[in-house]
Design brief:
Helices cover 16% and strands 32% of the residues of chain A. With 147 residues, chain A is α+β, with helices and mostly antiparallel strands. In chain A, strand 2 and strand 3 form a beta hairpin. In chain B, the strands form three sheets. Chain B has a three-stranded antiparallel beta sheet with strand order 2-1-3, with no helix packed on it. A two-stranded antiparallel ribbon of chain B has the order 4-7. The chains are: A alpha+beta (147), B mainly beta (60).
């Protein structure tokens, strides 16, 4: 059975660690605690039996509340295997840089390094085309194929 | 101390090399999972985790 707990955004890992420590000392049956990166402000608690969320072990700082009801395991599966960032980006795609010194600039993908998850881009608005290598999580796809 | 993740088993540690797999660890990881009871955990089974501990979901 999987339950969700609402936490302060940015404090998910701390809450998970404190709960893990509390659970160990109080002997509640919790088999794992998951902090999905794509779900900000929530952590998921897995238990083999029904657990009482009102237990003092779940009263920790930065925790905002408990979501009623269980979460089906199929929904949790999507968080366990995050799809690669560069799965939809192709050579020739138009992307926007979302962080770094060129934030907000549009660029064209000229090469993809899948093992390092890097992309080599060419800024569209630059007067001289200069290849820029950035990390895969620094870009957002705008247009899949080149015209 | 920087937390690193093993590139093979995804276990989180502070050492340069994973004590279980003896491969180098990476600073570039995301997602966080604490496994306490791997035998009764569906999540641990899905990710083939057999040892309790802290894990990353994605390691580069």
């Amino acid at each position: 059975m999987i339950y969700a707990i609402r936490t302060l955004v940015g404090q998910e890992k701390n809450v998970a660690r404190i709960i893990a420590r509390n659970v160990k000392t109080s002997g509640i049956e919790v088999s794992s605690i998951l902090v999905p990166e794509s779900l900000k402000g929530y952590i998921l608690i897995e238990s083999s039996s029904k657990i009482d969320m009102q237990n003092p072990a779940f009263k920790v700082p930065h925790m905002k509340g408990i979501i009623d009801g269980e979460i089906p395991f199929d929904e949790v599966k999507t968080f366990l295997n995050p799809e690669p960032i560069l799965a939809s980006v192709k050579k020739g795609s138009i992307v926007e840089l979302i962080s770094g010194p060129f934030k907000g600039e549009k660029a064209k993908v000229i090469r993809i390094d899948e093992s390092k998850e890097n992309v080599v881009l060419e800024l569209i608005e630059a007067a001289v085309p200069i290849p820029v290598t950035v990390n895969g999580d620094q870009i957002r796809l705008i247009q899949k194929e080149a015209d | 101390m920087v937390t690193k993740a093993c590139t093979r088993c995804h276990r989180l540690m502070e050492e340069e090399r994973c004590a279980v797999c003896n491969v180098t660890s990476s600073k570039n990881w995301s997602g966080f999972l604490i496994v306490m009871d791997p035998e009764n955990s569906q999540i641990a089974e899905e990710l083939n985790i057999s040892l309790p501990g802290e894990y990353a979901l994605r390691v580069r």
